[in-house]
């Protein structure tokens, strides 16, 4: 797979709940490798962005599989951790608004409220249960990716707040949108 396999809004699959993985099969292992390849290829096509996570639904495979980058600060380290059937079992800390983007929502960013800490349980590739306590940026990533497997996107958290939408400028900085751009984005993202 490559970046072209990553689906974008308004693709209908992005609004569907993904199904639980019952067994770690060759198909699941192959999908995980395809997801990693697509995420890295997407990242390699972008000057100012890093692919920090991807859900199976984003490559139009409705399985509850999520990959999360091992090191967010090192673009050369393109290794990902795998979380199968991830669930957030506890939300903790305060709710913080911060910028968020998505490989399936082209060139749009939003200031999204997320909990500063979460506890996650999932299976690893060997089928063993793992538990993660995540804080800060990692907590935000888990909330974003678990939303994906539940058919939700970051834009849904701010759909009633047009002022929370931004774009990534050519310089790599997040910029305000004009009212006309916001109208166009809302029409594209939230079309019926």
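Q: What amino acid sequence fits the structure above?
A:
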């Amino acid at each position: 797979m490559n970046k072209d396999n990553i689906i974008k809004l308004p693709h209908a699959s992005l609004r569907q709940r993904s199904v639980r993985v019952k067994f770690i099969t060759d198909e699941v292992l192959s999908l995980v490798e395809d997801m990693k390849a697509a995420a890295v290829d997407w990242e390699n096509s972008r000057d100012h962005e890093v692919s920090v996570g991807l859900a199976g639904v984003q490559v139009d495979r409705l399985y509850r599989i999520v990959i999360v980058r091992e090191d967010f600060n090192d673009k050369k380290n393109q290794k990902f951790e795998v979380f199968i059937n991830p669930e957030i079992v506890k939300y903790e800390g305060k709710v913080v608004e911060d910028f968020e983007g998505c490989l399936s929502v082209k060139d749009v960013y939003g200031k999204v409220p997320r909990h500063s800490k979460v506890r996650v349980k999932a299976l690893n590739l060997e089928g063993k249960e793992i538990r993660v306590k995540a804080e800060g940026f990692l907590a935000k990533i888990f909330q974003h990716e678990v939303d994906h497997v539940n058919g939700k996107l970051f834009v849904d958290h701010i759909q009633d707040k047009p002022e929370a939408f931004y774009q990534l400028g050519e310089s790599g900085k997040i910029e305000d949108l004009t009212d006309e751009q916001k109208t166009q984005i809302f029409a594209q993202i939230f079309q019926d």
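Q: And what stands out in the fold?
A: The domain at 3-189 is CATH 3.90.45.10 (Peptide Deformylase).
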